[in-house]
Write a structure and sequence with these properties.
disordered C terminus, Spore Coat Polysaccharide Biosynthesis Protein SpsA, Chain A
Amino acid sequence: MKKKNEKRIAARMSETNTGVTGAADIEGVILAAGFSSRTGMFKMELLLNEKTLIEHTIDSMVDFCSRVIVVGGHKIERIIEITKKYANVQVVLNPHYRTGMFSSAREGVRHVKAKWFFFTPGDYPLVKRTTYQKLLDARSMSPSEKIFIPVYQGRKGHPILIKGSLVKELLKEPKDSNLRKFINRKGFTPVEVNDDGILVDIDTLEDYEKAVGSRKGEKNNKNDKKNDLNFNL
């Protein structure tokens, strides 16, 4: 039964469209393979303003990339179903997802073919599109650097922009290593952004409730501004 399920999953993944809509030299890697044990439910399909968390993460990134690679594991069928509407999103299976997040990071970057790639866990739904642009602008201003990390009020977050030439080195990292160790060893360029969403990962239901409240606040603020404009008109 297990082999049949794996074959069925592989067949569905092979059907995912990898058409190009974004920058040809940039791809994205999003991790969505974990058990979501701290939330008690599969957090990637939790709804935030009528979209799942993973959709929010993809939507912020996708227009800047020729392809977005989503690494699945636990409940990968749900990830495939949610992402099938995206023309340039490819779901890949991490067969070792039970061993931890770094195995998913390695599986994701293994598929990278572009000169650069964005990297983020899938539970960062509040990142602004402007943050992606800021990272690309920083790359243009510092072409010799290889890793760019967004910083908000002195704290580092996601997504990270990494040069594709580092993929081979990253894949040689010991299995008990992690991305933080690799980045700290290689060095990085901090990029100041006005986006506290780079720090918001949804690990617990409390985190999720705060994110829902944050989005409601943004919506109310936008409505207030619209009302002010209409009044002035």
